[in-house]
Amino acid sequence: MAADPISRLFFHDLEKVCAGQLADQAPPWQKALHWQAAATTFKYLIHRHEHGLAAVKSRACRIEILIRSLDRVFDFLGQEVCSACAAPCCLTADVYYDFTDLLFLCLVGKTLPPGQPRTVSASGRRTSCRHLGPAGCCLPRSERPWLCTWYICPAQKIFIRKHFSKDGDHLQSVISEIKDLRKQMTALFVETVNP
Ligand code: SF4
Ligand code: SF4
Predict the structure, then answer these.
(1) How far apart are CA 183 and CA 167, in angstroms?
(2) What pLDDT is attached to residue 3?
(3) Which of 159, 156, 160 minimizes the C-alpha distance to 168?
(4) End-to-end CA gap in the chain
(5) What separation in Å is there between the alpha carbon of 181 and the centre of ligand 2?
(6) Ligand 1 close to Cβ of residue 132 (< 6 A)
(7) Beta partners for 136?
């Protein structure tokens, strides 16, 4: 294993993930150097263990398909609920890519964003999400932090209950399936690259 400083930075995080500790460290990789280190190391590990990651990659592909299948219902919610929201969460929520998000993006070969969605400005203030454009999020849903998809706010829940209970059940079951697949994908990846 390469012992350059960039890889060491990331492997420090990987050890914490194995020990179940990274959740306490959120959001990870806020500095550009750490973000690049994580991305480089994921790509390196995926390349190095290419032949042992088939089960991991198949879960990543399934996750991508499932997230895409949610577009219709979330686009509708955006149009009907978010467009009238007085406090849009994309302006204020502390969204970030976690270990599984970054692993997923690397496994499915997406172009990675230049860093976490929110950064700290020179004056020490947290910026709003870099992917927020005038017409909403500029990223395809599968490239957003998973948090941006699974979180259904109270206003959306009320709308779902009122207007499409069947679609609401489907939405919850797809979100549960994605959550399970993400856990499996990460566990299998860690097991393969860090036995
Ligand atoms: S998800 Fe909820 S809080 Fe966020 S913009 Fe939509 S309505 Fe507002
Ligand atoms: S990534 Fe997109 S959906 Fe998520 S907070 Fe940023 S603008 Fe909003």
Answers:
(1) 24
(2) 47
(3) 160
(4) 13
(5) 22
(6) no
(7) 133
- Model pLDDT for residues 48-57, shown as the tens digit of each residue: 899 999 999 9
> Which residues does ligand 2 sit against, CB inside 6 Å?
90, 93, 95, 117, 129, 131-132, 137, 139, 144-145, 148
Distance between alpha carbon 178 and the CA centroid of its chain, in Å? 11
Cα(20)–Cα(40) distance, integer angstroms:
22
Six-digit token pair at 77?
A: 């919610």
CA of 43 to the centre of ligand 1 (A): 34
The first and second tokens of residue 37, run together, are: 């280190």
**Per-domain residue ranges of the chain:** 5-193
pTM for the complete prediction? 0.88
Residues 6+ apart with CB under 8 A from 46: 53, 106, 107
CB atoms within 10 A of CB 128: 15
Query: Which ligand is located closest to the Cα atom of residue 87?
Result: 1
CB 107 within 8 A of CB 60: yes
Q: Whose CA is nearest to atom 1 of ligand 2?
A: 144
Ligand closest to the CA atom of residue 96: 2
Strands, E, within 21-102: which ranges?
none
Which pLDDT does position 1 carry in this prediction? Answer: 46
Segments of the chain scoring below 70 in pLDDT? 1-26, 167, 195
